[in-house]
Please model this.
Amino acid sequence: MAPEIISDSTMGVLSRSKPTVYVLDSFQPEVISFCKENFNAILPGQPEHAKWKENVRFLLMRSSRLTAEDIAACPHLLAIGKQGVGIDKIDGDACSARGIKIFNTPGVNARAVAEMVLALTTAVARQVGSIAGKQNAGILVPKETCSGIILHRKTIGILGMGNIGRAVAQIFHGAFEADIVAYDPYLPLDAWNEIPHSRAESVSEVLSTSDVVTVHMPLTSATRHLLGYEQFKIMKNTAIVINTARGGIINESELECALAEGLIWGAGLDCHEEEPPSKERYGTLWDVGALSTPHIGAATRETQVQTGMAAATKLLDYARSRF
Model:
């Protein structure tokens, strides 16, 4: 494929020796520098960026949504570099129909998200969110009114045994001497041989035996509302549920009922059906013991650089193979 040449009065003629990438979102400076060095990089705010749909062959994105209509409006699009694991904001069917490649970055953010699971779990176990909220509102909180749950040697149930689930298992087994029970219908039985754990045969087995249940599955038709009222009923009343995967896997209204009725101890949610979570939508859920954060599992500077660089590098490798 001949290299594309784009001319603009403010940018001049772009290099014939480099592929051109349109950058759809903001990225860390290191990622932008990499793109400028290795691509003809068209950035948001540059005049030529306004024509990205009609010109783009290689697209780098982070958090924007790319619908079937958007993809149809990109007649030359060949490949997308997507920072992060999730590609649910990209219409995968439309890309598949056109043979458009999607290069995401699984595994790169695993440690950061696993540490977020640890943060949410300990905060929920010790009621940090509600205690801090009361103090911030000027309410005195005598320590005698506080009671938490210890995590040492408890059972951690992991739904989804991918890179993040593995990192969670390593952290909790190492730091808390926790027993690990894991479920994943797609991995072979000899997965995680290096991590002491038991392999559950069903989601229900994980729920009924675990003190903490943490979700690490993609949102699909099979996993939407995987956890609802009936599932919470079989959990321990001292159990904690954590979701750092995708909003929609937990039925939020039924979680609120379960917390209000004391079916489980608490919940830590970094993912919601509405993001960022608002008080109007989630205030009553927070009132009954849920702790929310606005999908910040990978929101460390180190992770943003690593995932952005991984997406840009994969896209560059593919672009050079077609160039």
About this structure: Residues 1-12 have pLDDT under 50 and may be disordered.
